[in-house]
Write a structure and sequence with these properties.
This protein is an alpha+beta fold. It has two domains: 179 residues, no CATH class; 167 residues, no CATH class. Helix content is 54%, strand content 15%. The strands form two sheets. Strands 1, 3, 4, 5, 6, 7, 8, 9, 11 and 12 form a ten-stranded mixed beta sheet that branches. A two-stranded antiparallel ribbon has the order 2-10. The longest helix has 34 residues.
Amino acid sequence: MTIPGFILRNAFRNKRRLMLTLLSVTLSLFLFTMLQTALRELTQPAQTDESALRVVARHKVSLGNVLPVKHQSRIERIPGVHTCMKLTWFGGIYKDPKDFFPQFAVDADKITDIFSEAQFDPQEMAAFLKDRAACVVGIKTMDRFGWKIGDKITLQGTIWPCDPQLTIRAVYRGGIDETNLFFHHEYMDELCGKPSLCGTFWIRAENAEAIPGLIQRIDETFANTDAETKTETERAFVLEFVSMIGNVKVLIGSICSVIVFTMILVTASTMSMAIRERSREIAILKAIGYDGWQIFSLILAESFGLALTGGVLGCFGAWFGTWLMFQHVNIAAVSNGMFIKFEVTPHIVVSGMLIAVVLGLVSCLAPAYSSIRMSVVTGLKELD
């Protein structure tokens, strides 16, 4: 009997208990990995070199308040501004409320400059600019509904009192989010009776170094007016939506802590029962010359094997499962726009595996210590 064979034989002594414990560790680390991925996607929005140049000016009070369109001309004259575009959340319904996707009214002639990382077909964009009732749609939304160039769609207004009837003239690919629909702000203004209002102004700075000063200058320009602004980077603007949900970091962190604590209790309980059943064997090992460290090593190897197997199945299972699932599933549609993507990163997998390593060590300390302290005579009497 070799040492590895001895460890494996002990591990499989009670197969039902082993499988149940392994299943609990696997599911716990799978859940931990998924929660950490969700936290990362919510609190670390994707960013590109182009998006780092964008800042957003909104009403200082809240996103529910609108800004006068006349602000745009003043913003365009501020040093450091390359392009300023009106962008208003429309939030209409397409056929059914469950068919949600983001819709925005924009300055059509400036969209390619503001979202320069997206890929637009020049001929399609020319057709979009000519038709005031046209729209540009992201490729993921096109694929989701099976749309094609030339299709007509109607959006039922929920926030704005109009129902724009749009014709798809262009498709864009690439960029951070491929689920959006953009249409002419002028068309929405006409349908609503020319209110001369917009939700936000999206500004592209001339360079990254100009952004801090630009943000300050924009807000100072409209200070003490009836429509003061709050200007921030695109990243900060996106994170504000996450903050509306609540303190996501504390919530998910608390759940993950409970998961880890529960895993330690379950694994420690399993190891305690397994070692208690083998008290006579441990006493015999001591009697034939095994010291405390050697016995601890045997117990640690069994605990590590259980924890690491669960870690591999749970963490790598979550990575492979999400990769395979989202090859065929539109995560933005499933999550109603909460997640643009859902990627289990190597960092998250490594974090889960480190927890498995700690679990394997901590869960065997108490039972191993008690077995080492137990005398040979006591051990031999244990199961007599």
